From TrEMBL:
EC number(s) recorded for this UniProt protein: 4.2.1.51
Gene3D superfamilies with a match to the protein in the record: 3.30.70.260, Periplasmic binding protein-like II
Name of this chain's protein: prephenate dehydratase
Amino-acid biosynthesis keyword on record: yes
Pfam families: PDT
Residue stretches making up the Prephenate dehydratase domain: 6-181
Keywords of this entry: Amino-acid biosynthesis, Aromatic amino acid biosynthesis, Lyase, Phenylalanine biosynthesis
Residue ranges of every copy of the ACT domain listed in the record: 200-279
Pathway: Amino-acid biosynthesis; L-phenylalanine biosynthesis; phenylpyruvate from prephenate: step 1/1
Keyword Transit peptide: no
Reactions it catalyzes: prephenate + H(+) = 3-phenylpyruvate + CO2 + H2O
Lineage summary: Bacteria, Pseudomonadati, Pseudomonadota, Alphaproteobacteria, Rhodospirillales
């Protein structure tokens, strides 16, 4: 195995991040990391070629840790992946639904499967992560205790799937970013192909009235679609806010180039940083069509 064939993720084997890595890069070997910081470090230090990092979920919202890590992590976004989260109820061999008393998983997974937990009358026990809960249930070997995790976790830890697709919401999907040491900027799409490019960047505005309004004006006047804009505190100061943005477009396109130039007039010096330029995953537009958006 060479590091060029390794992709890092946060969590234990069988985590949804592990499943996402295997889905997008089936030819690569996955590298479990204890923390998101460790996954970033694995790529920076050459122990992995790529990292797969979750940034938002359609139910739970953004993964705040990674919005803080991305600007300073020293890596570049080269792609995105949308992973449908299909929760499974896992238990040791021979367990039955009627015999279960508790279910363990990450707090978000538990909250996403409340209907099933209530229906079966189970006591929910929070765990650090879904795959870790599955590993613990396998170690216990007690048919009264179950875990909520992925089908991959069931295979890895030798557990039975007592009930599949137990999430309350059918749209439960996590967006992942694919990170690399070096940027991999795609060329400008040829006209008429319909291919779209996403540019992700962070910025901080100067402390003047209407600074954010003025900073974003260039995107409106140049017809740039901003698909995400989030703010978060930096440095522990309530008056210092950093903004994270996704826009449709390539920095070499005249319209986005002009919008970014205008942004620099109102942003703090040196505080506009492009984190990645990468192909838009078709899922984002298929989802818009499904729910009838323009």
């Amino acid at each position: 195995m060479t590091t060029s064939n390794v992709i890092a993720f946060q969590g234990l084997p069988g985590a949804y991040s592990d499943l996402s890595c295997r889905t997008v890069f089936p030819e690569m070997t996955t590298l479990p990391c204890a923390t998101f910081e460790d996954a970033f470090a694995a790529v920076r230090e050459g122990r992995a070629a790529l990292a797969m990092i979750p940034v938002e979920n359609s139910i739970a919202g953004r993964v705040a840790d990674n919005h803080h890590l991305l600007p300073e992590g020293g890596l570049h976004i080269i792609g995105e992946h949308f992973q449908r989260v299909n929760h499974q109820l896992l238990a040791p061999k021979g367990a039955t639904l009627a015999g279960l008393k508790t279910v363990r998983s990450h707090i978000q997974a538990l909250s996403q499967c409340r209907n099933m937990t209530r229906e079966l009358g189970l006591t929910a026990i929070s765990h650090a992560d879904t795959a870790g809960a599955a590993a613990e249930i396998a170690k216990l070997g007690d048919p009264q205790h179950a875990a909520i995790a992925s089908s991959l976790a069931a295979d890895i830890y030798g557990l039975d799937i007592l009930k599949g697709g137990i999430e309350d919401a059918e749209h439960n999907t996590t967006r992942f970013l694919i990170l690399s040491r070096d940027p991999k900027t795609p060329p400008l799409p040829a006209e008429g192909t319909g291919a779209k490019i996403i540019t992700t960047f962070v910025f901080r505005v100067r402390s003047v009235p209407a600074a954010l309004y003025k900073a974003l004006g260039g995107f409106a006047t140049n017809g740039i679609n901003m698909t995400k804009l989030e703010s978060y505190m930096v440095g522990g100061h309530f008056t210092q806010t950093q903004f994270y943005a996704d826009v449709e477009g390539h920095p070499e396109e005249r319209s986005l180039r002009l919008a970014l130039e205008e942004l620099t007039f109102f942003a703090r010096a040196g505080e506009v940083k492009i984190l990645g330029v990468y192909p838009a995953n078709p899922f984002r537009y298929q989802e818009s069509q499904r729910i009838g958006e323009d």
